Amino acid sequence: MGQHWKKIWVGSAGNMVEWFDWFVYASFATYFAGSFFPEGNDTAKLMNTAGIFAVGFFMRPVGGWLLGRVGDRKGRKAALTLTVTMMSASAVLIAVAPTYAVAGYGGVAVLLVARLLQGLSVGGEYAASATYLTEASAPGRRGFASSFQYVSMTAGQILGLGLQILLQNTMSDDALHSWGWRIPFVVGALGAAVIFYLRRNMLETEVYADVQGEDGAELEERGTIKALLRHKREAVLVIALTMGGTVAYYTYTTYLTKYLSNSAGLSKQTATLVSFCALTVFMCLQPLAGALSDRIGRRPLLITFAVGSTFLTVPIMTMLKHAGSFWPALGLALLALVVITGYTSINACVKAELFPTNVRSLGVALPYAIANALFGGTAEYVALWFKNAGVESGYYWYVAGCAAVSLIVYLTMRETRDIDLKTVGGGAKPAPAAPAVAERA
């Protein structure tokens, strides 16, 4: 049990820093948007930065393919170490990017390169950590263990928001807009360096170590598109079941602060505090829901999320726009995040449980990254587009519609709770007689 917890801790800690770097771009965008673009409409500036945010998502399929292949061929540890290296480099680039006043659109170019690098990194990070946490968990505890992926993701965002609140209360607004927004990216780069050391010394999962005895064609095809194509149905299933969850998740996490300040009229400080408090509760709910899925199955939680998101998104978003103050906004945000917990707490293990070990990392990474590029990464931009067009409520229906599509998938998919990770897919070989040896750097 102790070794399982050690693996979960190391995998989660790295994931936290990865997503801190990923999310501080979104949470600090209101402060640095004016630094990289000429004077103009505030919503237009946010759309420009949101567009660059979305570009990072379109690199995620590439990162999913590249790092998913590394994870299946070289090991989960190798992929996780590579992702945090790239994320550290991207944080450094953003921290030193020149402003529009200094280099014109040269600063935008640096920002774009950094986001592309982040997209590569996160495209592999999700699958590598989802696979690692699922495989490293004890039998019958995969839902609970894999829920720590979103615990760590949310913790990263909470740390980013906490740092934002600290800077808002210790720096002037002018200083934050001028140079203070660079601080979180410096912090992220330093944190990534620490995680790099931890991941260099992490243990490989026994499930992956067991397939090291395979040879011949199976070894050559491990982590390849050819191997993935044998599981086309599962790959399409990952895209479909991710669609509603990722749109809803990014709506109530990365976009929420902007929505509350840009549409609901709350101050930036109040909007940030609402997000901080709501996400703290949300983070604590993940292990509870994950443990519940180990008892009753994955499908009941997924169906609950989809039904709630389909029918409650429009009223919640409408009321949020007219919340007016901290407490009503917090209550509505919490309601939305409780609903989304049905997806976030278990989606990592559900996807990992669909694929055999020799293609699990790629099988999770590539379809998930495609779904995120199409729906998650564009969520904020689509929301701002509807707002700029004067029909903001259209976005509420868009989110509800995506959830409805996923609901159909959840109602028809098979239960994955009791699947044996070593034999899923029907093509896995029995574990070799010799005990697996844990790898260390």
UniProtKB/TrEMBL annotation:
Keyword list, A-Z: Cell membrane, Membrane, Symport, Transmembrane, Transmembrane helix, Transport
Chief place where the protein resides: membrane
InterPro entries xrefs: H+-coupled_symporters (IPR051084), MFS (IPR011701), MFS_dom (IPR020846), MFS_trans_sf (IPR036259), Sugar_transporter_CS (IPR005829)
Record-linked Pfam families: MFS_1
Residues of the Major facilitator superfamily (MFS) profile domain: 7-418
Cellular localization per UniProt: Cell membrane
Membrane spanning stretches: 20-37, 49-67, 179-198, 235-252, 272-289, 301-320, 326-350, 362-383, 395-413
Membrane topology value: Multi-pass membrane protein
Annotated signal sequence range: none
Keyword Transport: yes
PANTHER family associated with the record: ALPHA-KETOGLUTARATE PERMEASE, PROLINE_BETAINE TRANSPORTER
Family label: Belongs to the major facilitator superfamily. Metabolite:H+ Symporter (MHS) family (TC 2.A.1.6) family.
Name of the molecule in the record: MFS transporter
